[in-house]
Amino acid sequence: MRRPLIGISAYVEPAGWAVWRDVPAVLLPEAYARAVTAAGGRAVVLPPDDVDGDVVAVLDGLLLAGGADVGPGRYGQRPDPRTEDRPDRDAGELTVLAAALAAEMPVLGVCRGMQLLAVAYGGTLHQHLPDVVGHDAHRPAPGVYGSHPVRFAPGSLAATVLAGVDRVNSYHHQAVADPGRLWVTGWAEDGVVEAVEDPALPFVLGVQWHPENEPDPLPITALVRAAGRLVDSGCDARRPRAVASPVGGSTDGQGLSGDRQSTG
Fold first, then answer.
1. 3-state DSSP call for residue 185?
2. Could you give the count of Cα atoms lying within 13 Å of 87 in the half-sphere of its Cβ?
3. What is the DSSP letter of 79?
4. Residue 235 pLDDT
């Protein structure tokens, strides 16, 4: 059987190589692609593109990567001076995410990607987490990862995928405030949301940390395996289905509502 194709949303940032400096570039930390390859998948880099989500027709899974902040206008807030957003990424990722959800495709959100999932399901974010928790442990210094304990709701997808994990890395200054129609299934010791999921779909998971930079990137491995099961079975996972549309849209009447949020 062929390797499952995993689309990974890419950054657009100024970059330099050889004689070129500050050139706008589509880029992605290699750790994401390495983790997908190690799990048996084929990484496909997705530049921001909000024309349509038709790329989903050739993918088997979607990984929403980390990066800059989600635009506060997407969840009805004014921007904090410390918020640095990327409107092109928001638009492109929400477009492909909507198509992936409609196709019941396996989806994993990492850091920013988890926050984008929450916004797509009608949730909101804390724009500057230290104002809420009173410390900088989730992003100790520029380019320096923190580390903290984590716990997961028993019986959840997060608990299954992350069995045995009780500590994760950390590099973020924003966090999920309201998960919208998602369930919260993971928490840091200070109450910060560390995992969200949609139990109405086969595999929709968000994690607040960066598993691609850990020795055993379990969430990414689980995403690839979920996509691989569909490939091996010959199932068409891309049939349309009415689900939550980007940024607080409606559902198909199957009871997806805020009261599904687990409690700590």
1. strand
2. 2
3. P
4. 65
**pLDDT of 251 over the 90 cut:** no
Q: Which amino acid is at 131?
A: D
CATH of 5-260 given 3.30.450.20, 3.40.50.2000, 3.40.50.880, 3.60.10.10? 3.40.50.880
Question: 260 and 151 in contact (C-beta within 8 Å)?
Answer: no
Q: How far apart are CA 232 and CA 152, in angstroms?
A: 30
Helices 30-38 & 218-233, crossing angle to 10 degrees?
Answer: 50
* Residue 111 designated active-site: yes
User: Are 173 and 130 a contacting pair, CB within 8 Å?
Assistant: yes
The answer to whether 210 is a known catalytic residue is yes
152-166 pLDDT, tens digit per residue, is 999 999 999 999 999
Q: What is the mean pLDDT of residues 34-44?
A: 98
Q: 200 to each of 9, 160, 210, how far by Cα in Å?
A: 24, 16, 25
Better pLDDT: 234 or 21: 21
Task: Identify the active-site residue in 93, 194, 197, 212.
Answer: 212
Find, among 65, 192, 219, 183, the residue nearest to 125 by Cα. Answer: 192
Cα–Cα nearest to 145, from 137, 153, 134: 137
Catalytic residue among 104, 138, 210, 214: 210
The 10s digit of each residue's pLDDT in 111-124 is 999 999 999 999 99
* Boundaries of every domain in the chain: 5-260
pLDDT digits (tens, 9 = 90+) for 42-80: 999 999 999 999 999 999 999 999 999 999 999 999 999
Residue tagged active-site, from 104, 111, 172, 173: 111
